[in-house]
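Hi P.,

Sorry for the delay on this. The queue was packed all week, but I finally got your sequence through. Input first:
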Amino acid sequence: MIFADKLIKLRKKNGWSQEEFAEKMGVSRQAVSKWEGAQTVPDLEKILQMAKLFGVTTDYLLKDEIEQEEHTGDGDAPMVKKISLATAHEYLAWRAEAAKKIALGVFLCIISVLPLLLLGGASEAYGLSGNVAGGVGLIVLFLVIAGAVAIFVHCGFQNAPYEFMEKEPYESEYGVDGMVKEKQKDYRPIYAKTNMIGVCMCVLSPIPLFMGAFMQLDDFWMVTLVCVMFLVIAVAVYLFVRVGVRWGAMQRLLHEGEFKNTGKVTGALKESVEGAYWCTVTAGYLLWSFLTSDWHISWVVWPVAAVLFGAIEAVLTYLESRKK
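Then the structure:
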């Protein structure tokens, strides 16, 4: 029995499709198809990996004259996936593309509330119906958020081949660390410069609001300046996310920073609390605004929530580090 037939037999015996087996081996489905079609033969490292995965000897896999399976008893042992140099290049290229999309999605989420704020201010200043202003503002808000969610879902599907890096232990093959470190070295100045610009924008963002207060502008213009402040912050966050996603991908491959040892950046508790927090803030803001019609005041929920979020995130990060 040739190697290709043995591979098909073992794969089907374990109930794996070609896609599932390829994922466990860290290769493409096309590579598995070529192995099973006797078009190519895997290298020695992959043979050893298969032997460990199936719990059989390498002699059984390689020697055609051995028909009976020779088991080693290691088939149930946990297997650490290997990241090849090609896979690392593909992953970094995808995360560079995903960084733009994810950053855009976050940007849209932040600015989604701006039409609601502007229309609320216009209803007070120009006699626009509060119900009409709130209704139109909410429609725009949900349309923008729907667009952001679509971006996130698309990125999630595209990231599916690399999800195992978030859930399972993995190791890098020879040459991967050197390649990633070289790219990280080249990208470090851009990462540092972009973060510095983002921090300066966040620090300077309230200046228009202070100028409006000194000039004693009316409520509508104050709300407009609040929107300008949020827009500046949204651009800053866009910059943070865009460079942060790429930097995080490099750290994940190198098991550095927050990805050290486990490869995971946050635990389920942190993700759940953060998601519930912003849902609660949004619900509270809308409830206060509609019940009181004080759109010119209720906007303060967002800067206060942002400050509190920083404190909550710091506490959750500390708890995660203690748990690890």
